[in-house]
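Lecture notes, unit on protein representations.

Consider one protein chain, 435 amino acids long.
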Amino acid sequence: MNIVNIVPGFGGTFYCGNCLRDSGFVSALRESGHETHTIPIYLPLSMDHVDREEDVPVFYGAISIYLKQRFKWMRHMPVWMENFFNAPFFLKLAAKKAGSTRAEGLEEMTISMLKGHEGYQAEELDMLIEFLRDQIKPDVVHLSNALLLGLAKKMKEELNVTVVCTLQDEDVWIDAMRPEFVSDLWNMMSEKAKDVDSFFPVSNYFAKVMQQKMRIPAEKMHTVHIGIDPSKYNYVQPDLDKPVIGYLSRLNEENGMEIVVDGFIQLKEDPAFSKVKLHLTGGKTGDDKNFIHKQLKKLKKAGLEREVEFLDSYEGQAKNKFLESLTLLSVPVLKGEAFGLYQLEALASGTPLVQPELGAFSEVVGTTGGGVLYSPNNAKTLAAAYRKLLTDPDRILQLAEEGRKNVAEKFNMETQVNMMISGYQNAISKKNINQ
């Protein structure tokens, strides 16, 4: 098969689990013998270990489509101007700015993208289709998330391809928008879902969420969990003498960093945990600077600034060394998450999880046996979970061993990509029957 993955870029300014997940599948598909291409849209895929094809441009450049959305006179800008705004330097600069990944304020843009060829980005869609037709000639177009559903209908008509779509954390984006837009957007996405042959939610939990929100028929839903290659991670037994609690995600409020900081402060009130440290990494955008400064002030007030380390590097080997140095990992996303790749990466490295009983966290912890859950999702209960585990070293070692074993068996990338390939083949067969 010749497969195209259309993936929103993020500029490389923070840890993006969904982006890493998409990249991992592309690499695994290639190793399985399938011709596979990644098409970035909005922003570049700027991470050292993300597959990038030098001859593939960024489509729907974030700056140019924003200008076209805001200013009618720019909707037919000349090619030279389009290329100027889509230059890598400007797109990477845009990724660092406040609001670059913020849902609120982009409601009209999201609607326009979902309208596809009827939206303000019709020229971009035509350019993308022309590129796919002339340069790649795909059998399958795989949309990274349901916010891209506006591309599906025109692609099927013009390219005669099978179109599939991953479902991963769309609710985080849509439900964060202004309330007057939310219902209409979900209805619009439900209608556009009819143009897609198959959907691949990343967890059973999220399959149920999206089936309800988008009214997707059960026969179109096929869960394919996130997978990893365990051989790329070194299993290191957790340090019990000098314990380190870790956080790996974008350094912002929504992903629960403040809960980790406050939980750590409460834990350190007990002299029995004087040796425990806190390490945080995952990058940031311009929107996160004030929040991070607030956490630093809080830690300094508690006299713990020397007990906490913020690491700038979170890619490749730097990330692996970070995970290997941890005793426990927590990323207590406020409303839960569709999956959370960092959980598998931590468990593959021998680091047990301490996660809230929300979203797909229960599914991951329950399947791997590599962590504990707490509820409700606040600093007090998180600190209590830390205390209980840190006073039971045998339990920590058991969780580490069980987690590594089950990640290798149940979330192995090879297993998951075979399920994806089977999903592609079934979608192609059904499409051919219905033609």
